[in-house]
Amino acid sequence: MLTELPSESRYSLSPGNRNGGANALSITHYFDGYHDIRISAGQPILHQGDECLNYFLLKSGSVRLFTRSPSGREVTLYHVQANNICVLTTSCLLGDRRFPAEAVAETDLIVRLMPKARFDDLMETAPAFRNSVFQSFAKRMDNLIRTIEKLALEPIDVRIAKYLLSFGSDRVRTTHQLMAAEVGTAREVVTRHIKKLSARGFIESQRGAIRIIDASALEKLT
């Protein structure tokens, strides 16, 4: 978990790369001097209830943020992609609260960690840093609100259609369980709707994948 700076070989540490890239956030250079930390796909980063001790910048890879119900059902909140920060982590640091969700590495990651004390100091003494943090926070909070609205208002078949089309491929490697987590419903509900879409000739369910037969029909659903 990224609750403290690693002090042993649990993660592989290498010298930091100072070039944040053309699409990096304007706060990237504030992470200069911190080491790159490599995290393997599938490894938990933060658990619900963890204390947030670091501000982190994701340099490469993808992190999935999700909640888990008492029955064990997962609902994906959002994904953090390269050169972005996590809105929930920012919220916890600003409000001195514990992490309200689960975060796991979807792919191999490279991240940089900034200790909370340094984050707090920059928020007080560096207006450019503070403005960038709040602008990024507001943008991603807006995206999170849209996700919540989607889960509350959009029909399941619309969510499934958007999910399948988002890959830009006629064959999507996925499972009903993963789709359920992404669209915010139970696996049994996804299975029922997949059967309906298959019966209408829009898709074909395969082992570990969904083949899109009629993309235009799925687009009309959205």
TrEMBL record:
Matches recorded under Pfam families: cNMP_binding, HTH_Crp_2
HTH crp-type domain boundaries: 154-216
SMART domains registered for this protein in UniProt: HTH_CRP (SM00419)
Cyclic nucleotide-binding domain span: 12-140
Transcription found in the keyword field: yes
Gene Ontology molecular function, alphabetical: DNA binding; DNA-binding transcription factor activity
Keyword annotations from UniProtKB, A to Z: DNA-binding, Transcription, Transcription regulation
InterPro entries for the chain: cNMP-bd_dom (IPR000595), cNMP-bd_dom_sf (IPR018490), Env_Response_Regulators (IPR050397), HTH_CRP (IPR012318), RmlC-like_jellyroll (IPR014710), WH-like_DNA-bd_sf (IPR036388), WH_DNA-bd_sf (IPR036390)
Residue ranges the record marks as coiled coil: none
Gene Ontology annotations for the cellular component aspect, listed alphabetically: cytosol
PANTHER family, per database record: CRP FAMILY TRANSCRIPTIONAL REGULATORY PROTEIN, HTH-TYPE TRANSCRIPTIONAL REGULATOR ARCR
Stated name of the protein: Crp/Fnr family transcriptional regulator
